[in-house]
Amino acid sequence: MIRLISLIGWLVFATSLVSAQLSTIYWPVNYPNANSPWVVGQKNFLSWITGGGVGIESFDIQLHHWNQTILNGFYPIALRVPMERLSTGRKNFGGELEVDLDSSIPVADGYILVFMNTLHGSVYAKSQKFSILASAPSNYTSADLPTATATATLTGVPNPTQQWALTLNGIDPDATASAATMIAGNAGSGH
């Protein structure tokens, strides 16, 4: 009985750690989605919104697929995306990017975009599952979307040393952490 209670306690603790890694911030990813896939060789739109005052100054965007036989690893799309207020004047923040896909990108259903802090591993948001198609179907009409001001181009296959397709001007959390250490000193060092 004591083993069962300790097992339940451990499971509750482990569940709280896992759930702490995924944010509960209102952060919908508008495009792409199940009805608006990306197409290889075309301009693909990525847009999101989020509520203001979330305490996140910048984030990174990665392209993932659950099936490792389709995509072994992930594509690093954008590094240090700044959290910016939308021009609507409301308290919404958000942004948009254009993503160009090379013909080497695997076509499949079930892709997701992950909005996260890659330094700490905190996941802020995930997109709906969407498809990447080799060509637009005959009945496909792309939404009339604005032209994004920044473009990321994905090529090749994922690898551990792959560079980010796009680096923006958001806060670098690694540089901020180093600066904070220099100001505050190292714990226990007497500085």
Explained architecture:
- Keywords: Signal.
- Residues 1-20 form the signal peptide.
- This protein has 191 residues and is of the alpha/beta class.
- The protein has one domain (28-136, 145-179): Immunoglobulin-like (Sandwich), CATH 2.60.40.
- The protein is 16% helix and 34% strand.
- The chain contains two helices and eleven strands, in the order αβββββββββββα.
- The strands form two sheets. Strands 2, 4, 5, 7, 8, 9 and 11 form a seven-stranded mixed beta sheet that branches. A four-stranded mixed beta sheet has the order 1-3-6-10, with no helix packed on it.
- A hairpin with a 4-residue loop joins strand 7 (108-117) and strand 8 (122-126).
- The chain is globular and about 40 Å long.
- The model is unreliable at 4-22 and 178-191 (pLDDT under 50).
Kindly state the number of beta strands. Answer: 11
- Total tally of structural domains: 1
Distance between the termini: 51 Å
Query: Helicity range of the residues?
Result: 10-25%
At CATH level 2, the architecture is Sandwich
Radius of gyration: 20 Å
Shape, please?
A: globular
Structural class: alpha/beta
Number of helices: 2
Keywords: Signal
Signal peptide: 1-20
